[in-house]
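Before the break, one more example. Copy the sequence into your notebook; we will annotate it together after we see the structure.
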Amino acid sequence: MNHQQTRRQVLKGAAVTAVGSALAQAATAEAEAAPAAGHVPGSCTTPLAKDFPKVGGNYGNQNYSALTRINKGNLRRLGAAWVNRIEGGLTTGTNQSTAVAVDGVLYIESALGNVHAVDGATGVTRWVYRQTRGTLTRRGVAVGQGLVFTHGRGNWLIALDQQTGAVVWERQIGEYGNMEKVAVTYHDGLLHVGTHDGDRGAALAVNAADGEVVWHFWGAPGPGEFGNDTWEGTSWQTGGATPWLHPALDPELGLVYWTFGNARGSRSSQDGSERGGTNLFSSSIVAMEIKTGKYRWHFQSVHHGIWDMDNSMAPVLADVRIRGRMRKVVVYGSKSGMYLILDRTDGSAPLGIDEVPVPQDERQKTWPTQPFPRQGPWTEHRVVDQPLGTSVPGDPNRAVPNYVQGKLYDPHWDVPVLSIPGHGGGACWNHQSFSHSTGLVYTGFGYVAAAHSLTEASNGLRPPGEYLTGGVVAVDVSTNRVRWKRRMPYSLAHGNGILTTGANLGFIGQPDGNLLCLDAENGRELWRFQCGAAISSSPIMYEVDGEQYVAVYAGGTGIPYGDSAPRGDFLWAFKLGGDVPPAPTPPAPVVRRPVSGGPVEGSTVGNKVVLARTYNATTGQVSAVESTAVNAMAPTHLRVPVGTTVTFVNPADNVNTHGATQFFEGLFDFRLEPGQSATYTFQRRGEYFFNDCFSPRPTGKIEVY
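Here is what the structure looks like once it is written out:
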């Protein structure tokens, strides 16, 4: 019996037909005829026109606008109509909030957690709510029944008067986990709110009139709840499974769709040894009744996860033609780099999903199979082993040397296993878009390989020295096949949402501050504009007094480029004929993962690097203890002028052979027994990373100036 016959087929599908042009035309016409009031249309898949009233656009999170006045024929005339430095020129902080537009007013949260109401036509600030509980990470407000809803640090929900910003009510909700950065979603008198980054989290429905919790749904079920038996012992209590991105809703079916994050454990999300079972509802999408929270169906995309590879995307709903008939589907899947196309009425898979056997490790209590769409992924699932000294940087999935290399869902224990897409790669927490015009779903993504092992306290090591890049991919929802894929210079997986329009345009911001417009049909770049700071939010489109605008907030965040990503507080709006000049170009993000520790002048340490030892920059002392920590190069970052000879030393009192493998140029690859040393003379300016052959985690860099 062959592999195809032995694998367990859970859900079956067949070949399908593409979305017809008549469907796209009908959807556009429906949107243009839809009421233009400041509320989300009743259908979850009705394309938007005048307003962009919630994060994700409509209830289906389609991030699509049917407006067509800005198009390929006049795109060269698109310019900035206005810019508002909403915090007066702030250049620090974490900015992950996406604006919403209701009745000609934009609502946006700053890095300080303040809420700003800005006139969509003029850019003038109408009112500001100033956060009283300290700064916090936010991803977007909700607007409904004359109120604007936001968070406050300490698990507070806050309702503001839509016209004035005055506080109408505040409610602290503390028993369900951390409740700050998940965008709030309003529908029919309820706020749908998720919790994040905790031992246990829940999806909540809250009364929009007073903040009282109406129902909750735990990501890790407790005793007596469906799914509790999928957790070993009491491991559910620290199981994680938090819903840290906003849901989608289908009011016609009466369902809300929440995605729950990765499983955690008593020690690490990398450690599954004490939580046997599939660990529901970690890495799952769950459909529940909007009004009651009653469970209807679920699909788990990673069983018993030990990789932090949760598919935690805000799900995208679409109506597409499959096998000749219209199907109501939900598009699910993010970090794993593949889409799971599910029928949103019952969770079945019209295109087929197979449970495929994967390698096992009894110590990790791994699950024997993992689900894969029959059509395959939209990104690579194994790192590329390119020889050192070949072209640099080479393939974006190029493996850092000396690591054990694996593929998606290979198990690990105490030895780091390097694989992709990685917990920060694929399509992590950016917003995705479904176009009614093309029938494609679009996402930015990242190439961010990660090394998983029990040596990592949290969710895996992004190896220092690797290149962190990415791209944009377009997938046909009716077939789950890639239509086009474009590699980009930066990772676009962390808040870099994409907006598509009825004119077949796709807008997406980059960490270097550039807002790009791509041809939605083939990915070709058509237009760009420098916004002054990294963009970690989604562009939106709206209309005021017959004028159509594109808006984006450029503020920046630390993932994945740390402090090298430029920060700001730029809220921009663009229209045809806009003449506000671009912002000054900020320093570009550093695309190579930095080493741990700041620069040390070679002259202060005798132009010497001590292997497998840590370094105290304050005292200049080298540790006396052999180490395999990431910072176990003493020092990790050495600065020397051109022509300097650097000595690499393995101390005599080290027990193990250690080395210095320079990548990716392949300038040297020393293997040194205890007491041995080697030298290399650097003749060219640049930065040269190296790691240890004994354990690849310790990584250093020689900066040559």
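The longest helix spans residues 21-33. The radius of gyration is 25 Å. Try to locate both features in your own notes.
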